[in-house]
Amino acid sequence: MATVPRSHLSFSRGDDSSRALLSSLNGFVGGNLSRTPYLSPFGALLKLTRLNQFGRADLHAAFGFQLTSYEEASQVLAFSTKRLCNFSRSIDITPEARRGWRLTDWLPFQGDAAKGWKHCWRTRICLACAREGFHTWLFQLPWETRCSWHGTRLVETCPSCHRPLALGFSKGRPLLWCECGIDFFDRRTALKADLFPNRARDQALAECLDRTDVLRTTQHLLSPTKQSNASKALAALISGSDADSRIDKGSIHMFHSRASFEPDQQRSLSMLDKQLGGKNGSIAELPSSMIKPMREIANSIATRVPPGSLVPAEARRLIFDGFIATKAGSARADIMYLPVQTGGNRTYMFTNSLPPSALSTISSLIQRTRGKWRDEESVRQVHAALQSLLFRAYADGLRIVLSRYVPELYDDPRLTPWEHIPWVMVTIDTVGVSEIHIVWTRENLGGQLS
Ligand SMILES: [Zn+2]
Ligand SMILES: [Zn+2]
Q1: What's the gap in Å between 432 CA and the centre of ligand 2?
Q2: Any idea which ligand is nearest the CA of 128?
Q3: Which ligand does the CA of 176 lie closest to?
């Protein structure tokens, strides 16, 4: 079994004089981070703790921050502004002044995905880069799968024992030293790498940040209120259809707008804005173009429920042609609210038959784009996306409500009640909305309809 080296400098917690001592020693071994301009703070921590033999217990004294027992260092430096600032201060770095130091510098969109991403975060490395103590935030982006220089797959677990990479450190070993004894860092390689800047890699990373800066001016992420599959959703959103093979298609659905422009789409958008664009009422009037498809959705689900599941009044409301076997009994209010309702020449739906997360995304998409509904392309894109969001949410709502009374729905893969959570990326250029991508992740029934 490998032994954990003892620290040659020992610190007591919160001892500021220790930190002053380090400064007076002109920094740490490997402390000249200007040679690796796009190193992530985690990369810096890796290099500094390993070359200077600090363990987890020294973090506060040496670097001004602590980890709780279940936290990963890379995760904390990615998402905790306060602890990143403390760490940066301890090694004399100003986060704003060092490009690529913050995780957000690498994100090609505006908008916040931190809530969900933080929870599915795993430290990810290139094995060859880790040997020399190099890590960049690029490795953590869910849509990146390989190291651009070594061409090898990025890994989140030890290739030998499959434990998460951060586990060794939380159990008292040096950073990136697995419990099975494998050390992913190599002191000699790191010291050698420290002598020679890797200009080709720095150039590639600088260009990557340039491209990201440009994309961030046009791409806006509308993240859902429920974010349990954040990294999967982000990978699918950013890498698009070419990533299909890497994504578990069973739980991800993607949207690509193909519909053409129709003059009445503009009017439909204004109506949806009024009904769903802000504080939503319990009843929403629907544009006439949406009525037929929504009736068809209700119809196709209701005709597939097992015979005898519905009472005649419910069947009449939900199924517009054809006949299904019904049972005796009185209609259940929840089911009676599901179909779109007609009054005079207007048609309405009850918004509480849609999952709340989809409703709030519909509302955000309207708010984010409504100032751009002037050109045909913007109208076409937003209209198609809203239809798609609304239809899927409606189908989910129908299955979720029906499953309360018809448990057999859980046995049929086409009727199983799922809640699909939409993640939306909107591209807005100087003209208007040029592109909308949606991916849906599937939730194992969080369908708490109010
Ligand atoms: Zn690499
Ligand atoms: Zn291992």
Answers
A1: 50
A2: 1
A3: 2
CA of 289 to the centre of ligand 2 (A): 58
The backbone torsions φ and ψ at residue 286, rounded to the nearest 5 degrees and listed phi first, read: -105, 145
Q: What distance in angstroms lies between residue 54's CA and the mean position of ligand 2's atoms?
A: 21
Neighbours of 66 (CB within 10 A): 15
Q: How far is the CA of 253 from the centre of ligand 2 (A)?
A: 35
| Ligand that comes closest to the CA of residue 144 | 1
How many Å separate Cα 396 from the centre of its chain?
A: 21
Note the ligand closest to the C-alpha atom of 134. 1
Number of the ligand closest to the Cα of 182: 2
Indicate the pTM of the whole model. Answer: 0.87
Among the bound ligands, name the one nearest to the CA of residue 166.
2
CA distance 194 to 188: 10
- Using CA atoms, how far apart are residues 411 and 38, in angstroms rounded to an integer? 51
Strand, coil or helix: what is 23?
helix
- Cα 333 to ligand 1 centre (Å): 60
Local confidence pLDDT in tens for the 450 residues of the chain: 444 444 444 444 444 545 544 544 456 888 788 889 999 999 999 999 999 999 999 999 999 999 998 899 999 999 999 999 999 999 999 999 999 999 999 999 999 989 899 999 999 999 999 999 999 999 999 999 999 999 999 999 999 999 999 999 999 999 999 999 999 999 999 999 988 889 999 999 999 999 999 999 999 999 999 888 899 999 999 987 444 444 444 556 777 777 788 889 999 999 999 999 887 778 999 999 899 999 999 999 999 999 899 999 899 888 876 678 888 989 999 999 999 988 888 999 999 889 999 999 999 999 999 999 999 999 999 999 999 999 999 999 999 999 999 999 989 888 999 899 999 999 999 999 999 999 999 887 644 443
Q: State the distance from the centre of ligand 2 to the C-alpha of 142, rounded, in angstroms.
A: 22
Distance between Cα 177 and ligand 2 center (Å): 8
Distance 428 CA to ligand 1 centre (A): 34
What is the rounded CA–CA span in Å between residue 386 and residue 359? Answer: 10
Smallest-distance ligand from the CA of 159: 2
Give the C-alpha separation, 382 to 373, whole Å. 8
Per the listing, tokens 């005898």 go with: 308
- Is residue 387 within 8 Å of residue 290, measured between CB atoms? yes
In DSSP terms, 285 is beta-bridged to: 348
CB 431 within 8 A of CB 375: yes
Rounded Cα gap, residues 346 and 252, in angstroms: 35
How many whole angstroms from 159 Cα to the centroid of ligand 2? 7
